[in-house]
Amino acid sequence: MLHDFITENRTEIIARCRVKVAARPAPRPTPEELKHGVPLFLDQLAEILRLHTTSDPGIRNGAARHGEDLLRLGFTVGQVVQNYGDICQSITDLALDRKAPISTDEFRTLNRCLDEATANAVTEYGRQRDQRISAEGTERLGIFAHELRNLLNSAMLSFEVLKGGSVGVGGATGAILGRSLSALRDLVDRSLADARLNAGIQNLERIAMAEFLEEVEVSAAMQARARSQSLTIVRVEGDVAVEADRQILTSVAANLLQNAFKFTPPGGHVSLRSSADADRVRMEVEDECGGLPPGDPRALFLPFEQRGGDRTGLGLGLAICQRGVEASGGSLEVRNIPGTGCVFTVDLPRAAVPVESGLVETFS
């Protein structure tokens, strides 16, 4: 029987399938797929084949459960389809090489199992993915609304106190109003950048870094003064530019600076340095947060991740920054300075110097 053939030759089938997966141009194979994915797919297909042989009514539920498992393990739809196909082909090739006594009906059953496994797994995969996306969207909207309401309440209460005339605008109440309005602006800017990235909307343009950093400095200097902190900005010299979406790049710089101000204590120092070489342009934001908490620094870029003591905000800023930088062909990294602070580095491709068209004058 075909199920017995698969069980007896499991190691050889896995080896053959791994060769096929490794040679696959797209979707590109991953180490996890080669090491654990191939045996998983084979075991799933063997189970479905066994259930078919015994006419078990749980075939559809088993395939659906497999789809849920594959999504949880991080496999893409393309990997699901390709792996089932590669395993089926490996079984067929080995059976032909070994001249195994497998009937035409059994091969038909194998193909039917393959079709059913793929269809049900992909269907369940899509259903689980849609549920997850819907849940994440609902959670994100709920947190956004909660943060928006809190900031609006603070701003309105401060305004009501100021309107009564018993306190001055330059006092503590006025400062609360100012911070609430600034936070509302940052929240809207961040949300707009997130929406543009989700929609795949980018208006690429050539952005001169010296001019861009001058614009960033205006807002950043006000934030530093409001928090009794000092700010240093080192602008790159010369005709240095990047090709990016201005709104998204502005959001990246603003989020990194806001994050630095948020975790640097009063009296501390924040710096924004820029540099360039022939191919790359870098922006570095350094703070005095005291150093990163224990754990993998890359977790800071996960959505809703907040690892510091200050839990205000959505926890989306760094995730949006990373996506925005990567959308422009760059990378965002963080370096820990234990006991002092950390440095976030934006690395972007340098835009080519435009060729100026000259006027050609002719004489007759």
Outline the structure in words.
- The chain is an alpha+beta fold.
- The protein folds into 2 domains: 2-134, Orthogonal Bundle (Globin-like), CATH 1.10.490; 202-349, 2-Layer Sandwich (Heat Shock Protein 90).
- It is 59% helix and 13% strand.
- The chain has 10 helices and 7 strands.
- The protein has helices spanning 2-8, 10-22, 31-53, 59-72, 77-97, 104-163, 172-199, 209-226, 246-263, 317-327; strands at residues 204-208, 230-234, 241-245, 269-276, 280-286, 331-337, 341-349.
- The chain has a 5-stranded mixed sheet with strand order 2-4-5-7-6. It has a two-stranded antiparallel ribbon with strand order 1-3.
- Helix 2 (10-22) crosses helix 5 (77-97), helix 5 runs antiparallel to helix 6 and helix 7 crosses helix 9.
- Mean pLDDT is 75; it is low at 309-315 and 357-364.
What's the SSE blueprint?
Elements: H1 2-8, H2 10-22, H3 31-53, H4 59-72, H5 77-97, H6 104-163, H7 172-199, E1 204-208, H8 209-226, E2 230-234, E3 241-245, H9 246-263, E4 269-276, E5 280-286, H10 317-327, E6 331-337, E7 341-349
Parallel strand pairs: 2-4
Antiparallel strand pairs: 1-3, 4-5, 5-7, 6-7
Helix pairs in contact: 1-3, 2-3, 2-5, 3-4, 3-5, 3-6, 4-6, 5-6, 6-7, 7-9, 7-10, 8-9, 9-10
